Amino acid sequence: MYAVIETGGKQYRVQQGDVISVEKLKVEAGDRVTFDKVLAVNDGTELKVGTPAVDGATVSGSVVENGKGKKVIIFKYKSKKDYRKKQGHRQPYTMIRIDEFSVDGKVTKAPEAPKAAELNTEKEEAVDAKAEKVSLKSMKKAELIAFAKEHNIEIDEKAKNADMIAAIEAALK
């Protein structure tokens, strides 16, 4: 089952369990959000298209986080005129996990999202896996020291890089 919703002047094709980034909404993390402007709904057997919206259809979700996107640099320049203007912009967004659809009173819910503690353990496992894949030989001295402190490995900070790498590799095994 999927739906096409409109928010922030943009259209999104969503399914249950999807996490989407939309234009910033005035809500806090953990709050519930309901989208009433559902342009189309497909329940697997038929497609309902609204004119402009499907009557009685809503899509609900929970706010995962509010944040800012990557920085975009705007640089204006005119040659031989001594005109340069540099400006940056980070677009604010709200990240939403789609939980349920409601069409004509029928509610379809997504399976339960993982708890925060489960997400934290998954992140820690990902960090540990990433630490194993990190190429120690490509690191600078300061990075090696920071890596060792992060993983509670004692090394001589005045030693050469090769000695530090050997000590870290021995401690990781």
Describe the SSE topology:
Elements: E1 2-7, E2 10-15, E3 19-23, E4 32-35, E5 38-42, E6 47-49, E7 57-68, E8 72-78, E9 83-89, E10 92-103, E11 106-109, H1 116-133, H2 141-150, H3 161-172
Antiparallel strand pairs: 1-2, 1-5, 3-10, 4-7, 5-6, 7-10, 8-9, 10-11
Description of the molecule:
By secondary structure, the chain is of the alpha+beta class. The chain is built from three helices and eleven strands; from the N terminus they run βββββββββββααα. The strands form three sheets. Strands 3, 4, 7, 10 and 11 form a five-stranded antiparallel sheet that branches. A four-stranded antiparallel sheet has the order 2-1-5-6, with no helix packed on it. The two termini are 47 Å apart. The model has no long low-confidence stretch (mean pLDDT 85).
Question: What are the secondary-structure elements, in order, as H or E?
Answer: EEEEEEEEEEEHHH
- Could you describe the largest sheet, including whether it forms a barrel? 5 strands, antiparallel
Shape: flat
Low-confidence stretches: none
Number of strands: 11
State the helicity in percent bands.
10-25%
| Overall pLDDT level | 85
By DSSP (H or I, 4+ residues per run), the number of helices equals 3
Radius of gyration: 25 Å
Structural class: alpha+beta
Q: What proportion strand?
A: 35-45%
Distance between the termini: 47 Å
